[in-house]
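Trying the structure run again after the queue cleared.
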Amino acid sequence: MATIIQQNDLIESVKDALQYISYYHPMDFIRALNEAYEKEANPAAKDAMAQILINSRMCAQGHRPICQDTGIVTVFLNVGMDVQWQGDMSVTDMVNEGVRRAYLHPDNKLRASVLADPDGARRNTGDNTPGVVHYQLVPGNTVEVHVAAKGGGSEAKSKFAMLNPSDDVVEWILKVVPTMGAGWCPPGMLGVGIGGTAEKAMLMAKEALLEPINIHELREKGAENRSEELRLELFEKINALGIGAQGLGGLTTVLDVKVKDFPTHAANKPVAVIPNCAATRHVHFTLDGTGPARLETPRLEDWPEVTREAGDDVRRVNLDTVTREEIKDWKPGETLLLNGKMLTGRDAAHKKMIDMMAAGEELPVDLNGRFIYYVGPVDPVGDEVVGPAGPTTSTRMDKFTRTMLEKTGLMGMIGKAERGPVAIEAIRDNQAVYLMAVGGAAYLVAQAIKGSKVLGFPELGMEAIYEFEVEDMPVTVAVDVNGESVHASGPAAWKLKIETGNLGI
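Done. Tokens:
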């Protein structure tokens, strides 16, 4: 007998699912992350995981986004062949209407990050539509739906190769994972797709990320096929690389590795790797004709109680008075608590400032002696000063760094993950510094922001130049004035510690 699915039931279910995953981590992720936190031996990596866990609990309690990058929406639908749709919209349009309602929800407005005309005007669509929608027609009379919101930082680290049939998949993956840096905000999951065609491998890697974290159960029962063998081997060998949380070095880089495969042409071995970041966001529901999906609310007591302690070695910094002489004492890996006023700016703002300087125009803000935070915050709700405001991937600003430091007198930058060689050289040459905030702890970071106002380029929306007033905002010195990078030294040191079994600090 056919099941009738009402148009509004899918729309409302997608809307509710996207709101739900914006502030509720999957509990399998929280359990796995807490286990990694408990065993972590590197204090810097342990503190990064603590921030992610604390942030997650705060978001679950406050119903605010886990990360300021609320993602691009991907939806997988398994549509029963006995289903009938009641409505006047295509199923894709129903999904996009659900996206629109979710991202414009007045109680928890989510950041619109989707740009139309991707190689041209790159105009923000304003409501995060369209999503990416995949379908399968399957036997049955229900519609199974997986909704995910994928952050741009982790999506940017996706890798694909058409290997030769005799090439070693594990060897290739162990080569590419270190090249991904920390912009995907480890620890997280890796989805691996092997076989089919190029697009099939990528799709399988993305689908694999929807599966629950269960690597420890697999280790207990043992592998029963090649995919499971690969999962176990990759899990051990990737963690042995010592990359660690946020790329700071440590025992856990991946919480699980998922592998899906498909028959392929005799001449090919397509392989795709897609990471899921610390802001893992996905949920599954089924529509059976009885109304919208009902998503179970997790219990707050299921989150671990984690606290952070400043410690005696933490340096408090006043951004309003800090001098170039003072920053020479900052060491890679050192924790700072920032106070005072900082500017913000990311890709679009940097491009505009570079163009204005080239044209001899005056910038809207004076950057001399200032710090700039690479961030695109979520809009505030209620009495918030600013919405979740975690860092964006800093390497995207590398090509602007030398000009910004030399032409404006900028003293320091704050962002997420490592800097590339070009930026590090510019930082060293200009005796500047780069500080790292934890990706995946956006709501926690926002609690440190006590004031916010737009100073330049208001037309850029979340990419405008703001001035934030902060109080004890936690950061790590990632690149010092000598060009020493913790993202180079940390993983190298912890790789050696893991190899030798010497995990003492």
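The two ends are 65 Å apart (CA to CA). Worth checking whether this holds up in the mutant runs.
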